[in-house]
Amino acid sequence: xxxxxxxxxxxxxxxxxxxxxxxxxxxxxxxxxxxxxxxxxxxxxxxxxxxxxxxxxxxxxxxxxxxxxxxxxxxxxxxxxxxxxxxxxxxxxxxxxxxxxxxxxxxxxxxxxxxxxxxxxxxxxxxxxxxxxxxxxxxxxxxxxxxxxxxxxxxxxxxxxxxxxxxxxxxxxxxxxxxxxxxxxxxxxxxxxxxxxxxxxxxxxxxxxxxxxxxxxxxxxxxxxxxxxxxxxxxxxxxxxxxxxxxxxxxxxxxxxxxxxxxxxxxxxxxxxxxxxxxxxxxxxxxxxxxxxxxxxxxxxxxxxxxxxxxxxxxxxxxxxxxxxxxxxxxxxxxxxxxxxxxxxxxxxxxxxxxxxxxxxxxxxxxxxxxxxxxxxxxxxxxxxxxxxxxxxxxxxxxxxxxxxxxxxxxxxxxxxxxxxxxxxxxxxxxxxxxxxxxxxxxxxxxxxxxxxxxxxxxxxxxxxxxxxxxxxxxxxxxxxxxxxxxxxxxxxxxxxxxxxxxxxxxxxxxxxxxxxxxxxxxxxxxxxxxxxxxxxxxxxxxxxxxxxxxxxxxxxxxxxxxxxxxxxxxxxxxxxxxxxxxxxxxxxxxxxxxxxxxxxxxxxxxxxxxxxxxxxxxxxxxxxxxxxxxxxxxxxxxxxxxxxxxxxxxxxxxxxxxxxxxxxxxxxxxxxxxxxxxxxxxxxxxxxxxxxxxxxxxxxxxxxxxxxxxxxxxxxxxxxxxxxxxxxxxxxx
Length: 734
Prior knowledge:
The protein is mainly α. Helices cover 61% and strands 5% of the residues.
């Protein structure tokens, strides 16, 4: 045992992802792109709504307005993809609306309407999640069905309403076509610009913000690749502009990997220069999205020092690779558009049948999510009807909206958000109805407010309901009696729907299996040494590593987003942090076939330990295979995977013990170094959560054991005697 005064590294603590906080409830972060989409939807919806109202009355205006909701397809989607999906979304909206109108005309029983709504919810949520539809996805079709099922119509009106709904969907498609023609390939450029903007944040991120910046950078980079592929029509793929975007994405992938692996000793002035370069690249891409010409980079923004190169022409470290990637991106924007040629990246967005087949599997998250949402809608509607409330569809809408959240904590936050937003919206509705506005005024306000609120349904329920409630409720009031009972009914159905959604999640939420989390870790570890062939092998390997790290992080965030995070997720979180650090370090460094072979044994041992929950076998990365930062991350990963497991202590040739502070408390996640009699480093290990460590000496004799808690605490040394060793263990040269 070694006594040492110091502090543990806080970077290995679990993040506050599984907490129900006031900040999470009141979060207002709609995103800049949503404001533009909200204005587009509000303007288009108001024009369609008023046109239908002036031509054939309020019901026709509502039908046309609902049909035009296909204009709400996310603006991040490339033009080519939007033109294909907008008619499909319009047809689905027409079918949902006409189903509601038909049940109303046939005077279907409340239970029939609730059952049909639940079935429609299940199918629409499943299809939208499987096909990666942008939020709010399936909720739009539930909303359309429920609103139309509460409107009193006759059977003779159905053909006319079908025509008006189809006309609204056609108008939405035309507006989308006009908008996409006006901005051209802006979605692709904006996506790549966001990748460089997140890169700029990652370059200067420090402390606990660095882990979040890494995840955000990978996410935006993946979205940029997907946007470029989605917009890759045959004509676009033959253009030089598309090839420029492909090149910029390649440079961004290299830069993100290098920025995530930057040494902590990098000078702040250098970081600020790279931050300015990445920000300038993002701004110029955003200008290109607005069809503005690319301006040459001023000479003052050029780096004065060239990137250090190795003899083979490859940058020597992460700093040099980041510098080179930013320089390449800047030169790509400064040069004329390259001549079109057959692109290298031929990966396309998954086909319709492939996506549906993947979502139909028994263990598919899309299927379980859709069944849970449909069950919650059925329970909410049924309970509202049994409670004597006159509009059970409102409870179904509330349940479907709340379940847009990806985790149980997010569901609870959205439930509180929706209740608060509805309460504020009811106050605004009461003030509006007290003025006894004319029907024309009500229609105009409804068209503007409903359109303005729709894009925020998935982002912030409180903001959406504050705007949406005074837009919808006045349409349901006929002006023939008191309006307070209607407001009370809306508040009660909202609370009941939110409660049903939260209880459904608690009852059906599948707690993350520790074996599943360990499987994600093992898959990501094996990806670190995945070999790729071809002229672009290095780029493919880099993207494979970053994607594996991102997928593992998503699995852990979903697990830690539970109301009661499982202990397995909390225990394995330090292993993910070490894996993420190692992934960035290795993705930033070019590897050869020899490197893969030399590291395969070490990585396979870690992957096996991660998959089966056993202590990792002795062994480490070759001393000349990776950077010191990568070997340090490897040791932390090895220690984290063995955290809480029985360590090997029956070998007399192993040095093991427990690190404690002067107060007797275990000192976790602390490096312990073993110096052999020749003065060279024999082994390095990290203590586990209980302060335990195991070291593997390579020779006999007096060794020096050195432990350091952090940079502010002086190291503590202890002399140990290693007996004669008949055969050297694995791990030499670690």
